[in-house]
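Subject: sequence -> structure tokens, single chain

Hey, anyone have a minute? Need the predicted structure for the following. Not urgent.
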Amino acid sequence: VPQKLSKTYPYVVENFVVIHRVHKKSPLPTKDIGYNPADDYLYKIGSSFKAGTSKPLGLFILSEEEQKKLMPNIIGISPSSPDYNKVLELYWCNLSVLVPYDGKKLNCSIEHLSETENRPVNIEDYILWKYCLQYSGVANKEEDIGKSAKINFVIWSAKEQMRKDLGRQRIKDEATLARIALREDKEKAKSILYLFNIPVDTNIDTNMLALAKLADEQPAQFVEMTKDNDLLSKAFIQRAINNGILLQPPGSSLISYEGSIIGNNINEAVVFFKDTRNELAKMTIEAHLRNKEQ
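Reply:
Had a minute. Here:
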């Protein structure tokens, strides 16, 4: 039976984040000024109330145990004092933390003293980080920035950035492999070009260069398209639209054939042509395409 390795205490689990401003461009005029006034423009993380209460948000960001353990270091008063709750609430009601132009760096690392005991390496930074995670003016990640007009800041961490970078690299690698495989499937390769509305050349190398550009610039969409079981059917429909056999009004996803709507979008049009009752229409369109694409 393998022995379980025992941890050596104390040890630190590192966690560093930066609170960045979302709006880097200063609202102040910069013409003929020898410095960027945004350096001086004050962006602050301020007090806020918890939704549905008349109490400041800060009272709810820590567990009761954490609050009694950590907050006395910040407000300078013991939980046993009769004024503790009053001072604690005043602190959170008057919170005002400046975020510099290049961001506010926070050390949120945790030091583990034993199996059951731990503490923040920097209490002030840790508490502000916990506050920012729930504060409506701070996005927890870049993808959330546009979710509210109230958001002026975003939390950035090296770990999260690495996770995102690795994810982007994985999808790029997948797109590269998918693109290489297309050299052995010319029909599929041409179908992707049709759906991206890129001219299909008689020279396979020209098509492969176009696919390489797509795989590099739009890897996620490229990979998704190569995995689409209806890829050839959709390309057939797109070719028919391009040649005026099927009609699609500008700015609309509707697709019609000989005056009748066959789908509100390309997916519904695929279903239409899969129906054996519409086999004649499909064969007719294929014949028209052969004549037009000669």
